[in-house]
């Protein structure tokens, strides 16, 4: 059933991406194709590998956090976890599938499931906090101007508020876990009475375990200021690479952008990320392309479609392909390794 679900999600991604690209390219398809075909080969390679670079940078976060749990954790193992997590996040609704598979891979790498869960919580907390601070700065610099240009920015503001609430909720849970557990009990009772939850006790136990694990990791993480600082710095680099890519593509396509428009591009890229909060479809497919086209159209003009195609392929499709290939390879590698151990033990 899971394999069938993943196949259906991939088909949905292809269909929605196809529609979104049609929407973005329908008015100037020939011009976009000509522009991309005339790109310098080196520039094209740099652009297409940009997504690989920022995903690899993300992997360094797992390396910094992972070496607390095992002495032999290498940067390569962290990068592997990042790519495989990107693959499963990219093919599941609201990116829900990534962390489960990442915990599975880390277990194979010698990190216990409980420690892997704590590590993933730490990564999530640090990333969300860093991202919201980063995006808040960009909002302060550019949001007032762009919100006056288009009503679409009200949706982006709502996305920003939702992400801010998530971060505030995380720290509230960490400070007042018992209150959250009591609220969870009340919510579970209500949901079970209206027959939404089939097994309320199991659900409550699961939520309580997650809150306890989360709170414990927050306390442990707060003592490790060096790791926090390193992870924050890595995430700043990762976000900077992600948000700056449309500018790099524009320069490669000879779109006449000025250096003072670099912050505009960074801000618009972060706004696309905020808008994605409303898109529960795997990979936020379809919606991401449409939002990108609407937000960047005034800046990139007729070549917005060309920038979109290269940006989306670099940040999503290439990473998805590499992550999928690595998962198949790693799964087979560990299966062979376990079979070899079993044979030697006979």
Tell me what you see in this structure.
Helix 2 packs across helix 13 and helix 4 (75-90) runs antiparallel to helix 5. It is built from 13 helices and no strands. The radius of gyration is 22 Å and the shape is globular. 82% of the residues lie in helices and 0% in strands. It has one domain (2-6, 32-344). The model has no long low-confidence stretch (mean pLDDT 81). With 346 residues, it is mainly alpha-helical.
List the defining traits of the structure above.
single chain; 346 residues; mainly alpha; 82% helix; 0% strand; globular
Distance from N terminus to C terminus (CA atoms, Å) equals 34 Å
Structural class: mainly alpha
Helical content band: over 70%
Rg, rounded, reads 22 Å
H-E string: HHHHHHHHHHHHH
Counted by DSSP, the helix tally is 13
Poorly predicted regions: none
Q: Which overall shape is indicated by the principal axes computed on the Cα atoms?
A: globular
- Give the number of domains: 1
User: What is the count of β-strands?
Assistant: 0
Rounded average pLDDT: 81
Largest sheet: none
How large is the share of residues in beta strands? Answer: under 5%
Provide a compact summary of the structure:
With 346 residues, this protein is mostly helical. The chain has 13 helices and no strands.
Topology:
Blueprint: H1 2-25, H2 29-37, H3 41-66, H4 75-90, H5 98-108, H6 113-147, H7 152-175, H8 177-193, H9 200-223, H10 225-252, H11 262-275, H12 287-300, H13 304-344
Helix pairs in contact: 1-12, 2-13, 3-4, 3-6, 3-10, 3-13, 4-5, 4-13, 5-6, 6-7, 6-9, 6-10, 6-11, 7-8, 7-11, 8-9, 10-11, 10-13, 11-12, 12-13
């Amino acid at each position: 059933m899971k394999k069938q679900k993943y196949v259906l999600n991939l088909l949905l991604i292809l269909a929605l991406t196809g529609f979104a690209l049609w929407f973005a390219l329908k008015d100037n398809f020939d011009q976009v194709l000509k522009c991309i075909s005339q790109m310098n080969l080196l520039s094209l390679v740099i652009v297409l590998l940009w997504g690989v670079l920022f995903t690899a940078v993300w992997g360094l976060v797992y390396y910094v956090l992972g070496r607390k749990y095992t002495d032999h954790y290498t940067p390569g193992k962290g990068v592997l976890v990042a790519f495989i997590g990107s693959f499963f996040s990219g093919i599941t609704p609201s990116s829900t599938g990534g962390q489960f598979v990442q915990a599975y891979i880390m277990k194979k790498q010698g990190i216990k499931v409980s420690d892997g869960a704590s590590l993933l919580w730490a990564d999530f907390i640090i990333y969300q906090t860093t991202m919201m601070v980063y995006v808040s700065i960009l909002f302060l610099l550019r949001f007032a101007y762009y919100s006056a240009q288009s009503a679409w920015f009200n949706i982006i503001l709502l996305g920003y508020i939702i992400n801010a609430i998530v971060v505030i909720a995380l720290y509230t849970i960490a400070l007042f876990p018992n209150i959250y557990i009591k609220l969870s009990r009340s919510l579970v009772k209500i949901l079970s009475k209206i027959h939404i939850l089939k097994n309320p006790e199991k659900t409550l136990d699961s939520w309580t375990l997650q809150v306890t694990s989360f709170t414990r990791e927050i306390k442990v993480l707060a003592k490790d200021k060096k790791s926090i600082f390193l992870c924050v710095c890595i995430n700043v680099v990762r976000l900077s690479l992600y948000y700056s890519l449309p500018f790099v593509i524009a320069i490669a396509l000879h779109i006449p952008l000025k250096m003072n428009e670099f912050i505009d591009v960074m801000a618009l890229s972060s706004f696309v990320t905020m808008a994605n909060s409303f898109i529960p479809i795997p990979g936020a497919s379809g919606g991401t392309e449409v939002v990108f086209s609407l937000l960047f159209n005034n800046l990139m003009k007729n070549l917005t479609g060309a920038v979109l195609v290269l940006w989306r392929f670099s940040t999503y499709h290439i990473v998805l392909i590499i992550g999928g290939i690595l998962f198949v390879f790693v799964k087979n590698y560990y299966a062979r390794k376990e079979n070899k151990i079993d044979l030697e033990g006979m």
